Amino acid sequence: MKGKFKVVSIIVAFTLSMLLAACGGNTEKANDSANNTDSKDNDGIELGQKDLTVPYVAWARELPVSYLYAAVLEDVGYNVELKQVEAGPMWSSVADGSADFFTGASLPVIHSEYEKKYGKDVVKVKMNDEQTINALSVPSYMEDVNSIEDLQNNKELGDSVDWKITGIDPGAGLMSNTEIAMDEYNLKDDWVLSSSSESAMLAELKTKYDKKEPIVVTLWTPHWAFGVWDLKMLDDPEGVYGDGDQIYTVARKGFEKDAPAAYKILEQYTEDPDLIAEELMAPIFNEDQDPEEVVRQFMDNHPDLIAEWTEGVK
User: Fold this and answer.
1) Is the pTM of this model over 0.85?
2) Signal sequence span per UniProt (predicted)?
3) N or C, where is the chain less crowded by C-beta within 10 Å?
4) Within a domain: 25
């Protein structure tokens, strides 16, 4: 009997050792698998500094695009604070490092003065839009007004609009260029450039347009207004507004090192002006929808774009 128990004990011990070895092997494989998964998840560019500050001016393109950047960056792990400012503080805050980047540098014309002042302290990351047009604009039903020259000594038109050109923010580069245009075309003796805000200018444009009344405004493309109303840009034979601007994303110096994944997304971002105007600008400004909701809907509609912009990011 003792011999049988001894044999049985040996068999049981052997069986247990095999089971333990198998379990140990499986555990090791599981650990290896987990390590491999962690390693794979860790591939990609590091976030670095996670808290980002993004100034923007509430213009037709800059507001929705800034919200879009913020949503994309937050989805990969950043905390983004959007700050609505005017053009001057937008540039200066990035130049002095108190903000990280902005999306709407209009160069070489509209923001030329800001670039002269702050250009050495910032980095142009990416050109987002190859050409925009800045000029004076009127409704197309103003058939006799097709050039800025048509404003000269035009008493009938001047009286009908109180000799006023309806502008936007006083610190906007477009306003500075319009002041130059008024000098160049000898308008300052009669005409006045009225500053307000883009939203106020558009509200006045809508009121006049609905009544088919004359109005002269400062405007640019791309802009959702051209998809809503029949407008035309006035010819600029003296070339005061230039051949058009390009729109750049501008970052503070050192941003690429401090937040490499964010910088990579800025570099990989691409922009279709018509798509931005139709799916972001129009719902926000013309339909008064919430910018965050509009941006999220845009991202849901274009997952391929989001994947392209965030490729390689951890």
Assistant:
1) no
2) 1-21
3) N
4) no
